[in-house]
């Protein structure tokens, strides 16, 4: 089958990437799984910077890497749109609103707990509708047919049954193997050709990162894992110690912001320099649930809560950069290899299985923790239906639905 490729438009600029990510950073509530729904709506449906399959491929890559998957996904899209500096623009835009709010909360609060506020519950309910719509829409294109549909449902069951990061990695690996066996056919060749036609929609970047830059990123990643503990030990500085602990947390934890909490609590709660109290830690965790953007900005709060004034801002900034830096290094180290691998016919077949697994993993996350922890009454369910109506029937933008949900939660709950 011959497919005539369309002429690719010019790549985007950094301002465009930053402003789009900033919009998401101001409106994306509900945690990393919900962020995928927001990202899909903005980057795939509205901006058309990439298509469903390319989006799912990047989601799969970020699921395999440790660190905050949604932030890595935003960085990857920024790279494809505007090159390496596009990753910085996307990260700053998506992270800055939540990070600034968490810094302010640490420097001005007295440990207030906002986790039970009605408007916050409304924001969580908006995330339920957004993720539900994303699962439905992605499933129609990436889990169509009996084989892929079965893989998606099986992945949802496995992700629900297997605890921790294994609930994501096992379905991804199994579905990749099944896809490799099942989809190396003429049908897949046709799908591949159609995908190639729109694979780089919105970008003329074929190889945004060289293999040399990728190897350098991986070298720096390993070097910092070795150097930071030594620097912290030899200097005795709380600042170096904070950087070391935050960097290790961002390097070694799978599963997003919630999964990183036990490691952070073990590292930073206690008595002495470079430590914070249990009460302060708990208050910060409650506050970060109310913030849009990545949960990893909790690190900014932890750092800022260890000191006052300018020193607190410095500590918060160091913790924030240290916890996100591994994500950037690992992504830039893996992306060129992933881009080359996915052009291979066998890899494309495996990715069909992986994409179906992504739908299943999102479906499992929609049930637990998103639905299970959020929808607890008839009023909650009605608000979810209202937001779904706004998004799916009335085609309102997510930020408008978020405002309605927050208002409904404040008035009703």
Quick structural gist:
This protein has 413 residues and is mainly α. It has helices at residues 14-27, 32-46, 52-64, 69-82, 84-108, 118-142, 146-161, 166-182, 186-198, 211-235, 238-252, 257-268, 278-288, 298-304, 309-341, 345-374, 378-393, 398-412. The chain is globular, with a radius of gyration of 21 Å.
SSE topology:
Layout (H helix, E strand, L loop, with lengths): L13 H14 L4 H15 L5 H13 L4 H14 L1 H25 L9 H25 L3 H16 L4 H17 L3 H13 L12 H25 L2 H15 L4 H12 L9 H11 L9 H7 L4 H33 L3 H30 L3 H16 L4 H15 L1
Q: Let me know the number of strands.
A: 0
Instruction: Give the ordered list of helices and strands.
Output: HHHHHHHHHHHHHHHHHH
Strand fraction band?
under 5%
Class based on secondary structure composition and strand pairing: mainly alpha
Count helical runs: 18
Portion of residues within helices: over 70%
Mean pLDDT: 81
**End-to-end C-alpha gap:** 57 Å
Largest sheet: none
Uncertain stretches of 5 or more adjacent residues: 1-10, 186-206
Based on CA inertia axes, which overall geometry fits?
globular
Radius of gyration: 21 Å
In total, the number of domains comes to: 2
Explain what the structure shows.
Helices cover 77% and strands 0% of the residues. The chain contains 18 helices and no strands. Helix 2 (32-46) runs parallel beside helix 4 (69-82). The longest helix is centred in the C-terminal third of the chain and has 33 residues, at 309-341. It starts with 13 loop residues before the first helix and ends with a helix. Residues 1-10 and 186-206 have low confidence and may be disordered.
